[in-house]
């Protein structure tokens, strides 16, 4: 569900025409619909409203400060994975007691920074990290609040690059070793055990992997209780899938109904870390046709957005719907590859798409690019990164300026 719709055959974000935005700010341009992501945030809150729940929006999905600020205004907390993300959320005035910090490679500097910032807790991913946090907290005269991220050895049934809860994955602490590690954590002077954490992967469309994981985690929590290790929070991560094409992901409600029987009985505070579910369908990437090129076996529509703007098709073979901004003079549809200007064969946005003939200058929208679009963008081929605009009804504002050529070299020393 989103608020990108055609009105009289031209594309709108809420009540704002996409054509006018492209004219004003140029292309490639990320356009976000505030109503879409705010509604998704409240959908997930509502699904868990009968439990004491903290939703921590996963900053990596889209870390634009204006979006983070809106999320904060709605009451959201934040799931972070780096000092940079911590800086961002503190910049927009996030409540540190609504920040949870995951990641397998937290450096000493990052740990110090998070301790100084008084975040809610670290989600610890290894014994070495636990020891480092204990040591650094001691040196700072602090006690670190922590959860251990448990790897439950469950297949999230998703793309193998975003499957994070199997025993061969680098994430989390093997469920078979975790109890022993909690026992040693309990003895550490500068560690305060707060919770149990899991995150099994991303773009998960059925509740089944969650049920497998949450079932194992629930048993694990019972084991902790038997050992007298008290926890206050159960963090079941993010990963809820969205519709890119023909998927039929479980709704937040269905997902919540499925997992609650496993987790409700403990009386714990629940943390959720959705990223894509909130922001994925709230963004489109608007791009302009540069040339049409008729090949011997394929026709190419060459556009001004490339894999540096949206790497998901190249990296994961992801499918994003591509639609014309304007259907007014729609000729008959014919197959084409929509490709960018970058010197790589992986630089495509869509293959074998049925689109009307598009003259140079025509606009296309690449849908469902709110999550892991701009946040994974790069300057490859020395391409300045795109501008970003947030739409709110018939109002809009620029939330990130397009980079300039000067920006590209600003940090370089010739
Ligand atoms: N929590 C943790 C610890 C995570 O590592 C992630 C995502 C999330 C929450 C949020 O997951 P979400 O609800 O957005 O699925 N670049 C990939 C996705 C990578 C996900 C990384 N971790 C993509 O474009 O599909």
What do you see in this structure?
The chain is elongated and about 70 Å long. Helix 9 (252-263) links the parallel strand 12 (233-235) and strand 13. It contains 12 helices and 21 strands. By secondary structure, it is α/β, with parallel strands linked by helices. Helix content is 29%, strand content 26%. The mean pLDDT is 96. The structure holds ligand LLP. The site of ligand LLP has 22 residues, from helix 10 and helix 11. Ligand LLP binds next to helix 10 and helix 11.
Number of domains: 2
CATH fold group of the largest domain: TIM Barrel
Please, what is the CATH homologous superfamily of the largest domain?
Alanine racemase
The shape is: elongated
User: Which small-molecule ligands are present, each listed once?
Assistant: ligand LLP
DSSP helical segment count: 12
Topology, number of strands? 21
Give me the secondary-structure category: alpha/beta
Low-confidence stretches: none
Oligomeric state, counting identical vs distinct chains: single chain
Q: Mean of the pLDDT scores? A: 96
List the helices and strands and how they pair.
Elements: E1 4-7, E2 10-13, E3 16-17, H1 18-25, E4 29-33, H2 34-47, E5 53-58, H3 65-74, E6 77-80, H4 83-91, E7 99-101, H5 108-116, E8 121-124, H6 127-139, E9 144-151, E10 173-174, H7 175-187, E11 191-197, H8 208-226, E12 233-235, H9 252-263, E13 269-272, H10 276-279, E14 283-294, E15 299-303, H11 312-316, E16 322-324, E17 333-339, E18 348-356, E19 363-366, E20 387-392, E21 395-400, H12 405-409
Parallel strand pairs: 4-20, 5-6, 5-13, 6-7, 7-8, 8-9, 9-10, 9-11, 11-12, 12-13, 15-17
Antiparallel strand pairs: 1-2, 2-3, 4-14, 14-15, 14-19, 16-19, 17-18, 20-21
Bound molecules: ligand LLP.
